[in-house]
Amino acid sequence: MNEKSLEILEFNKIKKRIEEYTNTVAAKDIIEDLKPYDNIYAVRQHLEETREAFKLLVIKGEVPFDGVYDVRTGITMAKKGSVLMPIQILRIGAVLRSARRFKKYISHKDDEESFPVIEDICSGITELNKLEDKIFLSIESEEQVSDRASSTLYKIRRSLRDKNSSVRDKVNSLMRNYSQYLQDSIYTMRGDRYVLPVKSEHKSMVPGLVHDQSASGSTLYIEPMGLVNLNNEIKELKLSEKAEIERILAELSLEIYDDISAIEIDANILWELDFIFAKAKFANDLNCTIPSVNEDGIVDIIQAKHPLIDRKVVVPMDIYMGKKFKSLVITGPNTGGKTVTLKTIGLLHIMALSGLMIPARENSTVGFFNEVFADIGDEQSIEQNLSTFSSHMTNIVNIIDKADEKSLVLFDELGAGTDPTEGAALAVAILENLKKRGSSIVATTHYSELKVYALKTEGVENASVEFDVETLRPTYRLIIGIPGKSNAFEISKRLGLPNFIIEDARENITSETLKFEDLIQNLQDRNLKAEAYKREAENLKADTLKIKDKYDSKLKKLQNTRDKIYMEAQREAKNIIKEAKDESDKIVREMHEMERLGYTSEARKNLEMHRKKINQKLDETESKLYINKSDDGEKLENVKEGEEVFLPSLNQNVIVLTTPDNRDEVQVQAGIMKVSAKLKDLRAPKGISKQQKKKKREAKLNFKSVSSSVDLRGMDSIEASYTTDKYLDDAYMGGLKEVVIIHGKGTGVLRNSINEMLKHHSHVKTYRLGEYGEGGTGVTVVALK
């Protein structure tokens, strides 16, 4: 594609924006060379890789590029057999680690969404685990080789620490002995050797080697003879340390050299992935979507926005052409947005054909064009002694020479800069010539002749940019199907031009022209009213849906509250009856004790009879508490733990938690409540299949032991949200009041995803980040309703 159009449409600014999202210079170089691809297969392939990267960012969060640098220089040196510096080796290790992590990052289960394009790119990655482990074991930082790199280095450094300790002890001892001869009561270093600051007049009192003197000459830095041997030993150890470090670096460099082809491939794949995910991050920030691409010249971009205009002020526009018409003539006042419309159409096409997502709504369509030609802006050139008209005409000559049916041609103020009559005629001829070639054309103009041409010619359509005469401001909205009106008289009138001048001007215009302008105004007014009615209808629909959702939510809450109150009343009544029965049994036991102490058996019989009457009356009272809604169910002779049964008094299925006791009562789980029920009142379960019974039974039994925390570390956002939602249901049904969600600190993506879900969860009362001692920002503490 021609460089001039890329420059005019400011594609280079888009590339600079994308570069801000990269991690390496190598990826920036790839972006620097980015331009539209020359076949539709490549366009679709690169759009798909961008879509996959975008989806991965949403599902799995930040990509594993931590610590990755551009190591092309290190790889080049390694290929020549050079010994690499610690920083170069460490960064190559970071590339190997990132490549290995990336293969894990894109891995997925069989039932999860796949990412075939990026998976295919990553298939070329070679995991060099042994080399990676050795690098990170041997290199501690960008300047330091680790003690663990070899046993020899470890021993040398341990000996160095011991010798340094001995030297310091010796130095401190000498300082005490020679304190009266020293300038300061401190020792210092000169050339890796310990020395004492001795006053120059007392140099003979401290026998040793003079290494340096102060600027004033009053202080001599002397190495006492007692330190010479120790300093020599330290020097020898440091030389041994340096030699061992050089040996280790040479060994690592040789191992890198042996695997340099695989390392280079891994690095190149990482640069490409860095480029792909930079495109995805750019798209994420601009709320972009993937357009479909066709070879038929069809353009249908919905709510298109210019990516370089502030998102807070840019006005979206709908752009369509290619089906009923392939030429679009846009008219309207200056500063109305005609040029922005041209640049938006051109730039969004270049972005899409370069594999970039575009700032537009879903289901937008762009055409695959081999060339996008643009003649936009003031092209006057002083150096070439060309006028504005001549410069534009030079561009147009070049366009006419090269344009064909696979070209998108953009003209700004076609035919301007010369005599209006001749300019309009020339503009019509240029448009007609390109139309016959099958080119797709978008042109802006002020000429009324072009409006008429668009009205009369098949395959050509008028469009206009809307202008509000009341406020004297453009709305920047594109209206296809209606030509623009200049509004010169209305604007002049509102700005204070006398009416008699305006009326004189009207008389100089033919009646046909005035009627045409009035027709345009009428069409625009009708269009504005239709749009206003449409927006009002949409607002009313949105308000109606909000009200519906609001009352649906209230109804659900009322039902939940009613059920809870009913359950609570049942449980309280049960407790009262149970307490009464226990009390009657206690009285009878006491009576038995009294009988043992002297009461007759006749008295015992009377008491037993009264106890039975009390229990019978309590049973009758209990039965009145419930409305038996289903007496026709199948009675159960025996039940076992975990079995699902129907309890008519509650009109729902429950889970049996205990076997029948000596009173033929069992404990059952009803929702979040545990209640006691008579075996004779239980019925066979209703309304579900055997398989559903089993699933419910397993789920209910799990409520008996719900953990107070759930660990989400290692999960992606979707899996973590699903796990948290299920866990909160279990915790709520299990009666827990407070739980802990462990998501780890990391980049914060997982934490933000979980907190966003908690905002709208029906079981959540409040939530907060953990405090000191609870796990800090690595956990979220949730209070349940």
From TrEMBL:
Task: List the SUPFAM superfamilies hit by this protein, alphabetically.
Answer: DNA repair protein MutS, domain III, P-loop containing nucleoside triphosphate hydrolases, SMR domain-like
Residues the record lists as binding ATP: G332, P333, N334, T335, G336, G337, K338, T339
The superkingdom of the source organism is Bacteria
Q: Known SMART domains for this protein?
A: MUTSac (SM00534), MUTSd (SM00533), SMR (SM00463)
Kindly list any coiled-coil regions of this protein.
Answer: 502-624
Which GO biological process annotations does it have? mismatch repair; negative regulation of DNA recombination; rescue of stalled ribosome
Q: EC class of this enzyme? A: hydrolase
Keywords of this entry: ATP-binding, Coiled coil, DNA-binding, Endonuclease, Hydrolase, Nuclease, Nucleotide-binding, RNA-binding, rRNA-binding
Start and end residues of each Smr domain:
710-785
| Protein EC | 3.1.-.-, 3.6.4.-
Has UniProt tagged this entry with the keyword Nuclease?
yes
Cross-referenced CDD domains, in alphabetical order? ABC_MutS2 (cd03280)
Q: Name one GO molecular function term.
A: endonuclease activity
HAMAP family assigned: MutS2 (MF_00092)
Q: What does this protein do?
A: Acts as a ribosome collision sensor, splitting the ribosome into its 2 subunits. Detects stalled/collided 70S ribosomes which it binds and splits by an ATP-hydrolysis driven conformational change. Acts upstream of the ribosome quality control system (RQC), a ribosome-associated complex that mediates the extraction of incompletely synthesized nascent chains from stalled ribosomes and their subsequent degradation. Probably generates substrates for RQC.
Q: Which NCBIfam families does this chain map to?
A: mutS2
Q: How does it assemble?
A: Homodimer. Binds to stalled ribosomes, contacting rRNA.
The Swiss-Prot or TrEMBL record describes its family as follows: Belongs to the DNA mismatch repair MutS family. MutS2 subfamily.
What is this protein's record name? Endonuclease MutS2
Lineage of the source organism? Answer: Bacteria, Bacillati, Bacillota, Clostridia, Eubacteriales
